[in-house]
Amino acid sequence: MPPLARRLLRRLPRGGAHRLLHAGPPSDPGVLACRLASRAVVRFAGPEAARFLHSLLTNDLLAAFSAPASAAPQRYGPTPNAPARGPAAPAYAALLTPQGRFLYDLFLYRPPPRSQMLDRTGSAPQTGEAPGGGREEDGEPREVLADVDAAEVDELVACFKRYRLRSKVDIDNVSEDFACWQRFGSNVVHTEPAAQEPEAQSIGWGQGTDHTGESSVQGDGHGWQWLKDPRLDYLGYRGIFPADMIPPLVESDKQADERHYQLWRIKNGVAEGSTEIPKGEAIPLEYNFAGLNAISFEKGCYIGQELIARTHHRGVIRKRLMPMKFVDENGQELEQAVAPGSEVVDDASGKKIGTVNTALGSRGMGLLRLEALKQNSDLRISDNKDVRVKAIKPDWWPAEWTQVLEQQSAVA
To answer: What is the pTM of this model?
Structure first.
């Protein structure tokens, strides 16, 4: 049984187990939502939590957490049902080895202070100060929730504890209390400048926003809400929610199996977790981390920065993770015909072009040389001549990533 299927069986959602999930591909998914059994939640709490993570990870977390998710001004005074300020947008980052190889990817959230969240009755704000005790100084959160790979959560917690030294931060696996969710699909609105879910932002009437309605739709009245996926706009919305609740905007007939989300990512060429990004081996720039807003080239030092900075400034990346389609000689898609780890070769020369690292149905992702994108390329699986491979350039790729390839084609 594949690792993802085992996780799905092991972590059925509490409070939503009675729902029937989409098992087969829907004719028009529109907007779907799924609980991510492949992800776990780790809490970093303490006065130095944000600065601790900032010093280790690839992204500029201090800048990310200081920016609100929505730049729209508040038109009304704060009410018990609406946060006094918008939540900080989530950040995507990675922890690397000292040699600059991938270890773990993390989605990092700054929870709203307790004073801006309703209590369980929904009638009054929670008492007390910001999470972790005391006030948040200089805009730095005292608590950060991290959405991480569930298969690696124990090793990840142990790794961060080794780096903790004298930093004032507690690190705990809180996956029993929280769950990760994704809202995605072809009809998800992704053109809004704000990072909050636009359906929730539009609640109300007239020229203003009904913050009471907005709060209840976004996060069930307790401060938990959908936020724009920090990697790419059209990946949809992501959030951490209490494990015993179904998030807002999740209709009973729109809750899907996680494989739908995995296929959505595969088609867009976006890997996630150590199953798809080889731990201790993958070079983040080859796996497109720069294009996924996971790396800051402006911040100070972090673990593994030297290789990342040198590769980036040299500007030569010959291999990249890209989506692919498996077909027969007539161009018909082949289901379940390729296993991860299969080599992709050029049919004419027999030269190895790359390796398949993820496969689901007739789709997959692999680390291939950029020449795989040439129009006249003829690729196949090395140990199965009947399976042809079509490499696909994702729409979100910057033009400069394939500029050298286009120049070579023009010369030819």
So the answer is: 0.81
